[in-house]
Design goal:
This is Fibroblast growth factor binding protein 2. About 30% of the residues lie in helices and about 20% in strands. It has 5 helices and 5 strands. The protein has a 5-stranded antiparallel beta sheet with strand order 1-2-3-4-5, with helices on one face. β2 and β3 form a beta hairpin. It is rod-shaped, with a radius of gyration of 27 Å.
Length: about 180
């Protein structure tokens, strides 16, 4: 019975992962907040590579981000809606390549691997990086040395013996802890 309850979720997970199939390459044009013409293109399977190219005001720039959108439920359910919403999110940014992280609005609580991070950490411009500050030294006073106390692994043998006699094996550590409180 235990084996079946463990095996069923594992099989469902792998079936869902294998059924996803290859992700097709997409190219979605959009215009960012600074009215630059941009093109978002995706490639890859599993870990998706997101390339953003923008042209405007006499300059051209591009950048690449990587992420695993399969961690996002919205991506797994409706991929076309996921990518069109991501282009909407990028439209709200003035310089999408300066973003330290692209977080999708359809997946606000998705784990961090689902967020798109720069493929090359050096691609961020100086405005995206936080200015470096010198560490502030604080004066600290020495705290008195703690008195001898039992470590977390040290147990009172008398409390452990009583717990073994009166508690089930699953609760013995907990019982010995409670008993030790009453003994001391």
């Amino acid at each position: 019975m235990r084996f079946g309850t463990i095996l069923l979720p594992v099989l469902v997970f792998f079936t869902g992962t294998l059924a996803q199939g290859p992700d097709t390459d997409r190219q979605i044009p959009f215009q960012n907040k600074d009215r630059e013409a941009c093109l978002m293109s995706t490639s890859g399977q599993g870990e998706i590579r997101l390339k953003i190219e923008c042209r405007g005001q006499g300059k051209t720039y591009s950048c690449e981000f990587t992420g695993k959108p399969s961690y996002c439920r919205a991506y797994n359910q409706k991929r076309d809606a996921y990518w069109s919403q991501l282009s909407q999110d990028l439209r709200k940014m003035s310089k999408p390549c300066e973003a330290p992280l692209i977080k999708h609005s359809m997946c606000p609580r998705a784990p961090s691997p689902s967020q798109f991070k720069p493929a090359d950490p050096n691609q961020q411009s100086d405005t995206a990086k936080s200015p470096t500050k010198k560490p502030v030294t604080k004066k600290t006073t020495k705290k008195p040395a703690p008195t001898k106390s039992k470590g977390p692994d040290q147990e009172n043998p008398k409390a452990m013996k009583i717990a073994k006699d009166h508690c089930s094996w699953f609760f013995q550590k907990f019982c010995s802890y409670i008993i030790e409180i009453f003994i001391n």
